[in-house]
Specification:
The protein has about 475 residues and is of the alpha/beta class. About 40% of the residues lie in helices and about 15% in strands. The chain is globular, with a radius of gyration of 25 Å.
């Protein structure tokens, strides 16, 4: 049966709508739907069949100009880094000349509080592969909000950066060999350099001693764990004798004065066995990822539709640093900033020994592992959790019933404000994650972060909780 012109038109528009919802476009240049998606895509508003010459150059350029103007307005209205952080300094390593883009939201201390040291609490954050420092933007905002709502005496700061080969760090370093040299040892070296520079810039000339809590998502958690484990076990990089460290050639010790400020380590959604198995399927996954996007909005939409991120409010700030336009005129498609396939040489080193290192870190550094939608642990983590070596927090979908919670020390939190949770849980539900982080700090560093003892504040919170319960309002 030969398809009528009307049926063909209807089919093409439905196909265009499906493509647009995925942020993709496979339409050929001769189709009635142009590559920017500027056509009616519903049956009720089906555009009339074009007459001869309707798709001429004038019409095409007109639609192209409208698409460019629309994209420009969309980009201008997106949130900026300054909406979440106070400063964004660039740190340059004098040894290699490599530069790192950093972001810092300063802590707030209530000077009216007595009987505490008033030392600031700061989360030092490290993102995972394929992400950027701005993945923590919404979490930073939530920490400020929840610190007030939960009655804490201050607001923790948050410092983060775009790691080697990612985000703005990639763009300001033109040498590809440097951008994609991502062994676990190199990433650890990078982190220690950035942390040292941060401390020197903000605390070396003051009497304030910060309480630092390291926060790592995915690969970032592996980097932070290796740094703490090796520093704590005296495997410093400048030891020339009796050392078993494989990073001897990367000679940059973390000063003891800085290391002693580290009070806690939090890993987000990373388990060694799971991560190692996932790497075997990474090439196939990367082949299925779009190579480019026609617009920044389509890149954001793809992250939502693919399930990588479920919170659009976070995606509109965390996704833009991941793509860029090659055309310096500001036209054309967006391409990935980081080509993850070029990092393959480092994959084998990224997660080896992660679980064993994590549970072997001594009690001077408190530890928490946050997982999403499952409580699966490998052998080392399971033994360590049963021994009480770290705190385990499991966030899960409200529709998911977890039946095999390991021990009473496992805290499972149902996410009633999100239908789905994914690997980027700190973006999906930043409020709930920030509350867990604040409670973790309070429990392990109560002198520097505690709740207000003001009776009026407590009574108002109690009253609000009672009213919420009475009216059936979920927290």
């Amino acid at each position: 049966m030969i398809m009528s012109e009307f049926q063909r038109k209807l089919f093409q528009n439905k196909l265009a709508k499906a493509e647009k919802s995925l942020g993709l476009n496979f339409s050929e240049a001769g189709d009635d739907v142009d590559k920017y998606g500027n056509s009616e895509d519903s049956f009720g508003e089906l555009a009339p069949l074009p007459s001869v010459g309707a798709l001429g150059s004038h019409s095409f350029h007109h639609k192209t100009r409208l698409a460019a103007e629309s994209e420009k307005v969309f980009v201008q209205n997106l949130p900026k880094w300054g909406d979440f952080f106070d400063c964004n300094d660039i740190y340059r390593d004098p040894n290699s000349g490599y530069c790192f883009q950093t972001y810092y939201s300063k802590p707030i201390i209530n000077d009216n509080i007595e009987d505490i040291n008033n030392n600031p609490v700061i989360f030092i954050s490290h993102h995972g592969a394929g992400s950027s420092g701005l993945t923590f933007a919404k979490l930073t905002q939530s920490l400020k909000k929840q610190s007030k709502l939960q009655g804490y005496n201050g607001t923790p700061g948050l410092f983060t950066f775009d790691m080697r080969g990612h985000g703005t760090t990639n763009r300001i370093n033109s040498t590809e060999s440097q951008n994609y040299y991502m062994s676990i040892d190199q990433l650890c070296y990078d982190f220690e350099f950035v942390l040292k520079q941060f401390y020197i810039q903000h605390f070396s000339k003051s009497d304030v001693i910060p309480s630092l809590f390291l926060l790592g998502h995915s690969l970032g958690g592996a980097v932070l764990t290796k740094v703490v484990y090796e520093e704590q076990h005296m495997l410093k990089y400048n030891r020339k004798a009796n050392s078993t460290s494989k990073r001897k050639s990367l000679d940059l010790p973390l000063p003891e004065s800085i290391f002693n400020c580290i009070k806690g380590l939090i890993m987000i959604d990373i388990v060694e066995d799971t991560a190692v198995k996932a790497l075997s399927s990474m090439p196939a996954y990367l082949r299925g990822v779009p190579k480019s996007f026609p617009s920044l909005k389509s890149a954001i939409d793809w992250h939502i539709s693919s399930g990588l991120i479920h919170n659009r409010k976070s995606a509109i700030i965390s996704v833009p640093p991941l793509v860029y336009r090659r055309d310096k005129s500001g036209q054309g498609p967006y391409y990935w900033v980081t080509d993850l396939s070029k990092t393959e040489k480092g994959w084998a080193s990224w997660f080896t020994g992660l679980s064993s290192n994590f549970i072997s870190i001594g009690n001077s550094v408190s530890k928490m592992l946050i997982l999403v939608n499952n409580d699966y642990l490998d052998k080392d983590l399971m033994i360590g959790q049963m021994q009480g070596r770290y705190q385990l927090t499991v966030f899960h979908n409200s529709q998911l019933q977890l039946k095999d919670t390991l021990t009473t020390q496992t805290k499972t939190i149902c996410s009633e404000d999100s239908d789905e949770l994914g690997h980027f849980v700190h973006e999906d539900i930043p409020d709930k994650v920030s509350i867990s982080l604040l409670e973790f700090v309070e429990r392990n560093d109560y002198e520097d972060l505690s709740r207000s003892q003001n009776p009026s504040v407590s009574s108002k919170i109690d009253l609000l909780n009672k009213l919420n319960k009475k009216w059936g309002i979920k927290k």
